[in-house]
Structure formats: structure tokens, C-alpha cells
Amino acid sequence: MTFKLWKEGRSFSDSWKGTKGVLSIKPKCGIKVLHDPPNAIVDLVFVHGITGHRDHTWSADQNSEPWPKLMLPSRIPEARILTFGYDASVIGFWRGISGNSIGDHSNNLLSALSCFRSDAEFRPIIFIAHSLGGLVVKDALLSSRTSPEPHLRRILDCVHALLFLGTPHYGADLADIGQRLVGLASLTTAKTNQKIVGVLQKDSEVLSRIQKGFHELLRSQHKDGTRTLEITCCYEELPLMGMSEIVPSESAILHGYPAIGIHADHRGIARFASADDPGFVSVLGELRRWISQVAYNDKHNKEVWDVERKRSSNALDGWADGKRGDDEDCGGAGAITIWGNVNRSVIAQSQIFQGNLIFGGS
């Protein structure tokens, strides 16, 4: 197996995608824009797994570009498409390994998104996470939930949906994955990031915190009834390199949420070669369904805003004509009413009043 990895210029890792026996292992970190339409109503954020790459994880072997860039813009033109990268190699050849933990990467994701979205901070977000990248996303949402910073808390408020691709949700299977990765590392005498490997062991405190916290988050949202995250879990149907499924379906499925089987191995579940790929068709269907929900909510909110704006404008017209607004027009009993000689100007959608104003409590 070691010879096969070298011969193909590949490793178990998503990130080492090379040709002619030369491995390309330079990590690409931070947010990269794949598509940025002027009329975007939603942000799609792709997050690769441990040992992954922000481009290669989403690129079929025969394609030079990731499928979100090649196939999504023409099919969901109203979505801005982003991919997030981080150096989280469990196995690395001929270089030092990043000592960052999953918590470091989740905080980096949270901060990077907040900064990048400063011009659209209330835009809905849909996360698409591959493999253990789902842990990074979960941990980022937990950090957002408890952050004292409003701009970081806002990320969770904006999340509309999560699409997990081969993400394990239960500890025993994560431990098996960790053992396989460490085993491959020992075969190649590669170095390992012990912080990441430690998370993949049984009874890991970090893993327990993430999983427990995420399930509590879902329960609290369901109990409150104010909002619930849309979640779909995709699981692999084929073994990887004769090793059986890396993430079995029973671990990749969250009970109570839709599940979709994709006829691919753990690596191929995130790589679609064409728009005819059944896996792509399934993923596209979920994204379109969620974006339709976002578009409906956006339209509904605008309609409500238009009604309120007209109502306020009519009340102001009455005040400008020297009529005292009644309680209903002014927001009910106890509201402040304004009447008298008022001239109104509208500048940049703001109301500016000039004249003799008389304030009275109703």
C-alpha cells in the first residue's frame, strides 16, 4: 500500500494531489472566493476535513478546478461560494506539522467568516463540510453561541443549513478513523499532529465536548421553537482502497434528519466529476431546497418591511398635515404622538423633520 501511494502521487490525505510521483502538500489557508455574484442572497461555505485542502478536496481527479466553482454558479446563481482552508495534516511528508488543534481551526473559521462577511453580515449561511471538517464547523458554531462578541455570535444566527459529507457523529467510529490515520503515518514514517490525533481517540474530552455541545444546541433550538437548523447527512456507500467504509452509515447519520447515500468512497463523496453524477444531483437538490427557503424568507421580510414603511409613511403624512395620529397609528397606548406644523424631507431613506413640533404622551 505504501508503494501504491507513492506510485500514484497520492496519499490517503485529500491534500496531497500531485502528478508524476511528486506530491503537492503546501496547505492553502483562509477563505477563497469561488463565485461572487452581485445579487447574492446566501453564502455557501465549503470546509474540508482533517488532512484536506480547500481546492483539492472538492476537485475530481480529471478536473483542474473544484466542482463548486465549475458546476454551481450556473445552477444556483444567487449564491456566493466560498471555500475555507486550514493546515490540519494528521500525516505529513518531509515537513513539520501544524500543532494547531481542532479548536484553533474552528476559531479561525469563525473569525475569518466574520471579517470576510463585514459587507453582508446578516446574509444566511449554508455550510458544506467533508469528513472531520464537520467537527470544525460544529465547534465553530458552539464558539459562536457562547462568544461575548456580537459579530461572532451573529454567525450562528445566520446559519440556515448544514450539509455533512461523510462526517462521523459518534466517538467509537472516530477512534477507528484515528487509528487508521496513525497506522498510515507509521507506514510512511511521517510525523503526526498529536493534538489532532488525540481528538480521534476514545474518550477524548475534546470530542465529547463538541458532540455533546452540538446536540445540546440542536435540542435547545427545537425546544425554543424559534428556529431550527436544516441538516442533511450524506454517507459513503463504497469502501476506500479495500478498507471498508471509513465512516459507516450508522455513524454518518444524525437521527431525526434526512440522510442520503452517495455511491462513492470516503474520498469520492466530496468529488463530483460532472453534473450527471448522482451524488452531485442529490447535493444540488438539497442546496436548491434550502436556497428556495432563504429566498422565500427574504421576500417575506421585504414585504413585511414594505408594509411597515407604508404604515409609518401614512402616519407621518397625517402629522405633516396637522393631524394628530391616534393610538393605533402611533403604535398603541403610551406611545409618543407628534402633531403641529411639520415639514418632512426624505434623505437617504431617513426621516428628517423641520418645523414646530409638539410632543405629547397619549
Question: CATH top level of the largest domain?
Answer: Alpha Beta
Helix content: 25-40%
Total domains: 2
The CATH superfamily of the largest domain is identified as Alpha/Beta hydrolase fold, catalytic domain
Number of strands: 9
List unreliable stretches of 5+ residues.
1-25, 91-97, 183-190, 324-362
Q: Any guess at the CATH architecture of the largest domain?
A: 3-Layer(aba) Sandwich
**What is the radius of gyration computed over CA atoms, rounded to a whole number of angstroms?**
25 Å
Specify the biggest β-sheet: 7 strands, mixed
Question: What percentage of the residues does DSSP assign to strands (E)?
Answer: 15-25%
Q: How many distinct helices? A: 10
- Could you tell me how far the N terminus lies from the C terminus, measured between alpha carbons in angstroms? 82 Å
Strand order of the largest sheet: 1-3-2-4-5-6-7
| CATH fold field value of the largest domain | Rossmann fold
Name the average pLDDT: 75
Instruction: Tell the overall outline.
Output: globular
Order of helices and strands: HEEHEHEHHEHHHEHEHEE
Structural class: alpha/beta
Subcellular location: Endoplasmic reticulum; Membrane; Mitochondrion
Domain DUF676: 44-194
Pfam family, one: DUF676
Main location: endoplasmic reticulum
